[in-house]
Request: fold
Amino acid sequence: MSDDPGRADSDETDPQDAIDAVASDRVHDHSAGDGEGIPFVGAGPGDPRLLTVAGRDLLADADLVVHAGSLVNSELLEEYCADAETVSSIGKDLEELVPLMRDAYEAGDTVVRLHSGDPAVYGAALEQMDALEHEGVPTYIVPGVTSAFAASATMRTQLTLNEVANHVAFTRPQGKTLTEEEDHISEFVGMGDVTTCIYLGTHAVSETMERLLEDGHDPETPVAAVYHASWPDEEVIEGTIETIGDRVEEAGYRASAMIIIGDAVGGEDYERSFLYGGWANRGSDSDSQEADD
Ligand SMILES: C[S@@+](CC[C@H](N)C(=O)[O-])C[C@H]1O[C@@H](n2cnc3c(N)ncnc32)[C@H](O)[C@@H]1O
Reply:
């Protein structure tokens, strides 16, 4: 947080000024609801019970909750924000959102900004936080369960799996935000031992898979599309690079699915881990390495 946040004179401040003016001392030492200012809370993937305890406690005290519209389950809002005014951020730009939260905070209201999943993953939280800090309003993050984790739980698999997947990539496909050159899905898939989790790509599954086929990837590579993971209407569509596009189109999903590519999707052909094998008892070796959970 900046020592001198440079309070703006009016609502007309360009949010880019706030981003450019960010002080280097960004590190905060709180992340579980004990901060000062406006918390940016992860609502989790959908099921209200996947909200953290810290998030629930903050919502219970809130006067104003600015939430991420339909990505946040309305049952969560009804159950945990019953006493607060709730406002959707959908369709509002920074110039509207920042004064809304700042004015309420300065009027003495307890304000919570509720993002879907975890605010740090495709959440555009930081630009709001920096704009608020620039206007003298402290902010901090309370993490949430990101949808890739809910999707792996729905599929009853792990994203990392011994001898199958050693890495996880959180990514999105090319489109309005990413150029062709910035789309790295093909590279992640080409690495072989990466589980590639595609956010914001439900509308473009066929195009994404076609590009992977053009790049020569194995058409039999497992892919799952997990729609609305943790919601009552969640659905898992399983397939391969060759088949998943048609299957998602047949199901009619254009948004709100997590696309997961890689052998970990099937949860098969893995090796037992070192953690629960001989390695755990190998004395100094086990002291010098971090164990898998
Ligand atoms: C704007 S991003 C927000 C991601 C969020 N911050 C998170 O951590 O999950 C929205 C994308 O997340 C994914 N997503 C969000 N909730 C989901 C869910 N319950 N099941 C599957 N995918 C979900 C979809 O790919 C959707 O297009």
